[in-house]
């Protein structure tokens, strides 16, 4: 009897050990770090990716320690049937339990969205497409839809003014509609009462300020010149003079690489050609930066009416108050173009 009891007790202890070991193993798998990464990385799930695509990312990007266990655990939790799109972070210390909970709940890690130095809508859509899940063609379609633009207070030509270059924390799988609403909210916050008051004193509307800022930025490679150039164009606007801005001609022609503006270019029939049409063009010729917009709002007060690129090709300018002085500056620049065979 004693021998039988010992056997039963031994078997019981063995079973307990097995259960304890299995439990410890499962606990270790679930609660301890399950990825071999030294810094945070992210996996991306879009509408086309399935569970197998995710597993592949976990192996390649996350260097998961036991993909078979993660797969089994996910099946138990019925995750493959309820996958959510998004960008999900894998940190060096994250456990399988926490990571899977993030996936199930859709707890994403936002993207720091940035855009700058953009001239055309197509470039903007491409830049956003590279950073977010949304489709560039869908975004471009919205930006070229007059009814969509009007809901935000713009038209197809001025909608670019709504986008203020900055860094924005957004979810990777944000929809086009939510993205545009977010940008409008940021635009409204940017145009504080102080900025609105400064615009009214010029007087220009916020959209007109952005249009002028886009021209100012295209004119100079030196930010220090922005307020001076802004003041020059404001002087011309107040006097009813043509702006005669070369960058607007380049935009009208469709070639920003032009190094020399010829008379044929000046005859381009376009509302963006400020050599032919008075006032500001109907829309910006690039998405202006905050520095460009603020340069217009805080423009330098002076008497300059003319500007000409310096003959040293530094990207800076000679400024003049009279046409005679400007003619001399222009002649020096044209001679420099000829010397360097720039046609």
Chart the SSEs and their pairings.
Layout: H1 2-31, E1 41-45, H2 51-60, H3 67-76, E2 86-90, H4 96-105, E3 111-114, H5 121-131, H6 136-143, H7 146-151, E4 167-170, H8 176-190, H9 193-201, H10 206-219, H11 226-239, H12 246-253, H13 263-266, H14 290-297, E5 306-309, E6 317-320, H15 323-339
Antiparallel strand pairs: 1-2, 3-4, 5-6
Describe the protein.
This protein is mainly α. It has 3 domains: 28-105, Dna Ligase, domain 1 (2-Layer Sandwich), CATH 3.30.1490; 111-190, no CATH class; 193-339, no CATH class. The protein has 15 helices and 6 strands. The chain has helices at residues 2-31, 51-60, 67-76, 96-105, 121-131, 136-143, 146-151, 176-190, 193-201, 206-219, 226-239, 246-253, 263-266, 290-297, 323-339, and strands spanning 41-45, 86-90, 111-114, 167-170, 306-309, 317-320.
Keywords:
mainly alpha, 343 residues, 15 helices, two-stranded antiparallel ribbon, 51% helix, Dna Ligase, domain 1
Summarize the structure.
The chain has 343 residues and is mainly α. The protein contains 15 helices and six strands.
Strands, total number: 6
Helix content: 40-55%
Low-confidence stretches: 6-29
The main sheet orders its strands as 1-2
SS-based class = mainly alpha
| Overall number of domains | 3
Distance between the termini: 110 Å
Contiguous helical run count:
15
Principal-axis shape equals: elongated
Rg, nearest Å: 31 Å
The helix/strand series, from N terminus to C terminus, equals: HEHHEHEHHHEHHHHHHHEEH
Mean pLDDT: 89
**Major beta-sheet overview:** 2 strands, antiparallel
Strand content: 5-15%
